[in-house]
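Why this split exists: single-chain examples teach little about how molecules sit against one another. For that reason, every record in the complexes split bundles all components of an assembly together and asks for one structure covering all of them. Below is a record exactly as it appears in the raw files.
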Amino acid sequence: MTLSEEDYIKAIYHIGKGENTTVSTNSVAEEMDTKPSSVTDMVKKLSEKGLVNYKPYKGVSLTEHGQKTALTLVRKHRLWEVFLVEKLDFSWDEVHEVAEQLEHIKSEKLTDSLDKLLGYPEVDPHGDPIPSKKGEFKKAIKKLLSEVPIGKSGVCVGVKDSSAPFLKFLDKNNIALGDAVLVMDKEEFDGSLHIRIGDRDIHISQQIASNLYLKITE
Amino acid sequence: MTLSEEDYIKAIYHIGKGENTTVSTNSVAEEMDTKPSSVTDMVKKLSEKGLVNYKPYKGVSLTEHGQKTALTLVRKHRLWEVFLVEKLDFSWDEVHEVAEQLEHIKSEKLTDSLDKLLGYPEVDPHGDPIPSKKGEFKKAIKKLLSEVPIGKSGVCVGVKDSSAPFLKFLDKNNIALGDAVLVMDKEEFDGSLHIRIGDRDIHISQQIASNLYLKITE
DNA sequence: ACAAATTTTTAGTTTTGTCTAAATTTAATT
DNA sequence: AATTAAATTTAGACAAAACTAAAAATTTGT
Ligand SMILES: [Mn+2]
Ligand SMILES: [Mn+2]
Ligand SMILES: [Mn+2]
Ligand SMILES: [Mn+2]
């Protein structure tokens, strides 16, 4: 498997949100930042290799084999992200780019030893679940903060928008993964929220709330 | 810098044994397991990029810039080797292949954090010195065991032949990096040695002795 | 149902890195 | 010094992965 092939497999997996749906040529092109014609070419090749199902004009989906490949890549990507944060003191917004390279290193022993070193983590620094060696993982039970009802509380486990600017905003406002959050009140007018985070009461906009994931605790 | 370009730079560096000598097209081809014509093409490109000095029919050498690039690659390669052995329990003979991939990961922060995590090691698992961030390193003061005079002792710091079969032989015979070795006697007839390693007295052939490096201690 | 808009594919190029076969230069021998 | 051998480069071809422009299929709107 070449690096490029792997990135395509991963893109198809991600667009389908983990469930094995059929995705369009254009959506893959957009995700990968390439042209649709390039996608067509690659998808034909992947089809011949038995990694995807492809019918011209009808979209692509992963085969059993492709699915397994995607899970391995996601596993590697997220394990490396944990490594970078836990062992090398990287911050949220720095890990993705490097993990994008590290996920392509070919060594099953490396992946599994890393998993062990990190204590078999179940989620990555963005709150996304890490597939086990067998490809199993708990479907994330995370909810957007904007959809959490008043009175409920949870733990901050991830972001929807993982762009550097947003992550930097969170850093600046002292909102971090693992923080306990209680939804105290919601403004009907603009959807902004009053929340208690740690021991601080703060007020955040709807836009922020709809990009932060909580794992509901009660 | 592409992965392939980096591997060429490294090959030129290694053939020149770290000193900046001019090396032949053929030697690069052999080291890289490619054809001489491919080397010519690549060397032209590297020359245009200012990484090597190249005169047709006269061989290649690294420029200042190329030298620096080579040192960075060697640094990354060897740091990853230490990481694999120290943190992930890889053995001598397993690290090279994986490090060959990891050395190409682009992130200065990653390299330097790794260096810190490992406690700024000075040698890799094969006894080869690791360049510092600034590109400085102590020239190895290692000597082939076969050339150590009778009565002298040292610490096993590396191998000349780093092929898997040889490394496996050492494992099997309980000879490891860091072991203290005393040369007790030498057979004139076949050059074989009687050595004390740890608390064991053993007899090794000239062939083995000429592939093991010691750092002389007294 | 038909025309217009959109999506997707095909055809033809480009760049990178490799190869083979042939030509050229340099080195070694007589 | 001439010939032979070895090393190196050139020329031409190919596979991978991308692109642009044009053609074909599908979807949408009326
Ligand atoms: Mn990637
Ligand atoms: Mn992530
Ligand atoms: Mn390499
Ligand atoms: Mn090494």
